[in-house]
């Protein structure tokens, strides 16, 4: 009995430390995404992110030694969160699915992703990672949209209808960066829902 107790004690001590480390990393990634969405690349330094996460700069650099490491991690986090948000959408009527997809593209995760795109256009270390992840997220978004909309892509025009919807949602997300476009957006979304219904049959 004594042998079992002594061998299990290090694990019991070790687990909370790992949990704290994971929690700190999670807070840093969430803070990095929030800073990007609110302040853009130029205003999102390691110090600003660490302060927002409630950890020291040293703790931040323990997890992410460089600024590029931190925001490359944020790229991955944003990609995973956007995919998870899509997968969590309930199966419902097409009009509701169209509205939910647009909400995703006009929300804070997409705003952070846009800041990453802008940063990647100027930062050589970020560009390949952002490009690769956006391609992956794009494929996943299309696949989930097809599933939620009940689209039969063997039908002529069905694939293009879904892709057009996603392109429109992305465009509304871009417009939302500058102005609160809620009222006009509601009318556009209603029209697109009708077009999707017609295009998918």
From TrEMBL:
Source organism (scientific name): Streptomyces durocortorensis
Q: What is this protein called?
A: TetR/AcrR family transcriptional regulator
Keyword set for this entry? Answer: DNA-binding
Composition bias of kind Polar residues appears in: 1-11
> Sorted alphabetically, which InterPro entries does this protein's record hold?
Homeodomain-like_sf, HTH-type_TetR-like_transc_reg, HTH_TetR
* Stretches of the chain forming a coiled coil according to its record: none
Instruction: Indicate the segments forming the HTH tetR-type domain, all copies.
Output: 22-82
Region span, Disordered = 1-21
DNA-binding region(s), chain positions: 45-64
């Amino acid at each position: 009995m004594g042998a079992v107790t002594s061998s299990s004690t290090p694990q019991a001590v070790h687990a909370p430390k790992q949990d704290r480390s994971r929690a700190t990393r999670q807070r840093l990634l969430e803070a990095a995404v929030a800073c990007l969405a609110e302040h853009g690349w130029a205003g999102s330094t390691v110090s600003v992110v660490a302060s927002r996460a409630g950890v020291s700069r040293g703790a931040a650099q323990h997890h992410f030694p460089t600024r590029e490491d931190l925001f490359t991690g944020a790229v991955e986090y944003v990609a995973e969160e956007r995919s998870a948000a899509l997968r969590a959408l309930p199966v419902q009527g097409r009009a509701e699915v169209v509205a939910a997809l647009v909400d995703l593209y006009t929300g804070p995760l997409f705003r952070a992703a846009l800041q990453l795109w802008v940063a990647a256009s100027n930062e050589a270390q970020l560009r390949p990672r952002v490009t690769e992840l956006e391609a992956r997220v794009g494929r996943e978004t299309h696949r989930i949209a097809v599933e939620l909309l009940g689209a039969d892509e063997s039908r002529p025009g069905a694939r293009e209808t879904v892709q057009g919807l996603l392109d429109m949602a992305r465009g509304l997300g871009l417009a939302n960066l500058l102005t609160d476009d809620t009222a006009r957006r509601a009318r556009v979304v209603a029209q697109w829902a009708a077009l999707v219904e017609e295009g998918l049959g």
